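#data-curation
PF: Archiving a pair of folding outputs for the training set. Convention for this channel: one message per protein, sequence first, structure tokens after, nothing in between. First:
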Amino acid sequence: MTDHRAQPDVRVRLLEGAARLLAEEGPAALTLRRAAAEAETSTMGVYTHFGSMADLADAVVAEGFARLAALLAEVPRSEDAIADLAGLAQAYLINARQNPHLYAVMFGSAALGKFRPQAASERGRGRYTFDEIVAGTQRAVAQGRLRPADPAAIAAQLWTAMHGYVLLDVGGYFGADGVPRVLVPMLVNLLAGLGADPDSTLASITGLTTDEPARH
């Protein structure tokens, strides 16, 4: 007799399989049978881990933000807030490359249809990951690296720019040299527009790669 008790690996397979279905085929593809087949489990296994298909779709979004938050949390704080912001940008990109389907679902690039959260509080549930970027910009202002301004407004500009770059990067539009050719100059130009010195900014983010979250 098949054991349908909750198993962590099955739960992860269900989340990643559901994300693939949503990102590649749309919400109509996220059915009980398809979700079970993607995860190589039974339909009862889906209900063991998630109460409904809507709960599964909601958990996909939550999982995406949890993985992003975990990588952002690994970026250490140093005496160079600009380098720290570059580390957060690096972690953000790595997360999207490692979890492209989750990324597409959590930020709405994949249509969720009937599974899309309706309440504003539900749509904004992943905003806690934004706090790391706000804290980084706040420290950059305090260190005099950026001109005095609302850290949340600065962080929103950085997040918007990074999101645009990441969508194109994950889509394969920039190739292997996208980071030094596009991302680094984009960050330097944006931060310079926010009051940073271009030369010292470039020196702070020169080590930006996509191997692992920055550790300085």
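PF: Second:
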Amino acid sequence: MKLIFGATLWLLSVVATAETLHVYTESSPPYHYTDERGVVVGSSTDRVREILENAGYDVEFYLMPWARSLRMVSQQENALVYSLARTPERESQFFWIAPVSEFQLALVKLSKRQDIQVRSRSDILHYAFSAQRDDIGFNWLIANGLREGHNLHSCPDIQCSWQQLSLGTVDMIIEDPALIPYSARAFSMSEKDVETVMFIPELKVEGFLAASPKMAKPRVIALQQSALRVAIQTVDGAPATPQ
């Protein structure tokens, strides 16, 4: 009887755990960041929460360095990550649920650095950058000839990259100019203190909510359908509630 009772409790625990989805992201205000209570919030976070709760799941959000977020989602069956650029290299590595943000990335420098001149892509090799390890900006810099530990400083998050820029330990970072007012303020700067050097056309991307490659296919389909319902309800002006 004790064995049966114990097995029943274990089964109930497994079922309960299966109903909670673990969602990983990095700090990138105003899309996803922690508020004064330590709760993960932001415009993309709201959209992700809406999609998952509409599908009937409880959600636990975790904010951590980007490379660790990617590692965590790849190891867990009931895990998702956002905002993930949908690149050809990543296409088969995740299940893609829905876009939750848009980015147009660019090279960014301090306005006072008039010595920095980028007229062609090859010019970036003359300067030092910081970028978040394993994100698309970091990979773009590597693909264009920069070398980690030489002219590329790897950072765990965008705040680290901004700190390196503000201190002058690097010449440029990669950022969406639309986010400059939020990030500059965090380092006691105004948006006038920062200047866009050059947009990177191939880094105009949508940021997706994506699921672990280990997630069961029926659950993936349910989440994709939930995302469609939420999109339709948003267009119609109706509240998106779990169904």
